[in-house]
Description:
single chain, mainly alpha
Amino acid sequence: MSEKVTSEVISRRRALSLMGLAALSFAVPPALLTVSDAKAQPASPPVAPPAGSPAAGAQTGTQTGTERRQERRTRRVKRRVQRRAARKKGRSERRQLRRTGEEKT
């Protein structure tokens, strides 16, 4: 009779997590928990576009997605640099015209 009876207090967070685990165990069907014996399929070779299509001339070789993305970025950067250079030239010409009244040659 000398034993002390102690009850452990369960926090709300722990109680909710236990209830969630119990609900999850009832909700998940056993078929989803089984492991499949399926094997990975080998990758199929890319299909080339028809000879007359516009994409046929653009594709010189097989490229990965990363290479295509890098080419697009490079083209965008070049176009942006050209636009900025044209704007800068136009600004300097307009500034020269305002200051002196005559255009730069």
